[in-house]
Amino acid sequence: MKPINSNWFVRARLKNRHIPLLAALGDTGNLNRAAIGLGISQPAISKLLKELEDGLGVELFERHARGVVPTLYGEAMIRHARRLLNTLDSAYSEVDALRLGQQGHVRIGTILTPCAELLPETVRRAKQRFPGLEVTIRTGSSRDLLAILDDGELDFLVARFYAGSQQEDLHFEPLAKEPLKICARAGLVEGLLSRAELNAADWVLPPAGSVLRQEFDALFQRVGMRPPRKVVNAENLLMVTTLAEKNDMLTVLPRDVLAHYARYGMLGEIEVDADIDRDLNQGLMAFGIITKDQRLLSPAANSVLELLRDTARQLRLGLG
């Protein structure tokens, strides 16, 4: 164990009040509003900030007439302060849940496909086994979710792993790929559509930069065609499916998500040649379970994670 006087926070005279101060200034960019939020005076805020800057030996914020702007050092301290507050909140929640005889709180981040079957079945089984369990599910892109996981706001992800995420402490367990299907409102199209007909159609698609959009655009770029131009860009799944259901528009959805809407007669798969289907799914990355350090997970999160793995096995997800 390191001697206490070798720790930087001792030398910098870091106090417990400095941590919420950094987070509050990062949120508000204003000394007065931060003081109100923390329930202390503005002079006290200024004194705490000066203490911290003197202890660290760097300027954390640039002072302006309308507020404060974090420097490069300030941004780093704000990020770590938020992460520390999230960790402390999780610690309190876990202790409080144990004290009250509850099962705890599990926070899961996920991309779209697992929302169709894997996660609903996992949550159903978890609630049967742990009736007092609180579960939060946050959806988004894999890149966004990886950043949120790194900040400590999520326990684990069901998403794609990007080697360029610069997070060396992540563990990835691949589960499955998510085949994409072209679809539209039920009954809109009969028979096979060629690549040229697909190119000329009206589409509602996720924004440029998303994995699904990249795969869709590549469907045409691989054969020297420009991607379709008659496109409505929509990120929200409800907006995408509603536009497709109420208009003569095509869209692309993961197979399991399409199956959910097809069960209710809202959307149907568009038939295409086998080479189009193959090209659409040629570059797909597998999704899977992403954790930082499972040893640091709460008992509740570990229990749900094991249920998730077991559910994936029962649904026969896997890359063989």
Could you describe the 3D structure shown?
- By secondary structure, this protein is an alpha/beta fold.
- The chain has 3 domains: 4-80, Arc Repressor Mutant, subunit A (Orthogonal Bundle), CATH 1.10.10; 103-177 and 286-314, Periplasmic binding protein-like II (D-Maltodextrin-Binding Protein, domain 2, 3-Layer(aba) Sandwich); 180-280, D-Maltodextrin-Binding Protein, domain 2 (3-Layer(aba) Sandwich).
- It contains 13 helices and 12 strands.
- A 5-stranded mixed β-sheet has the order 4-3-5-12-6, sandwiched between helices.
- The longest helix has 28 residues, at 72-99.
- It is globular and about 75 Å long.
- It starts with 7 loop residues before the first helix and ends in a 6-residue tail after the last helix.
Q: Any idea of the CATH topology of the largest domain?
A: D-Maltodextrin-Binding Protein, domain 2
Note the main sheet: 5 strands, mixed
How far do the termini sit from each other? 45 Å
Average residue-wise pLDDT: 87
Reconstruct the topology from this structure.
Elements: H1 8-11, H2 18-28, H3 31-38, H4 42-56, E1 61-64, E2 67-70, H5 72-99, E3 105-110, H6 118-129, E4 134-139, H7 142-150, E5 156-159, E6 171-176, E7 180-185, H8 195-200, E8 203-205, H9 211-221, E9 231-233, H10 237-246, E10 251-254, H11 255-263, E11 267-269, H12 274-280, E12 287-291, H13 299-314
Parallel strand pairs: 3-4, 3-5, 8-9
Antiparallel strand pairs: 1-2, 5-12, 6-12, 7-10, 7-11
Helix pairs in contact: 2-3, 2-5, 3-4, 6-13
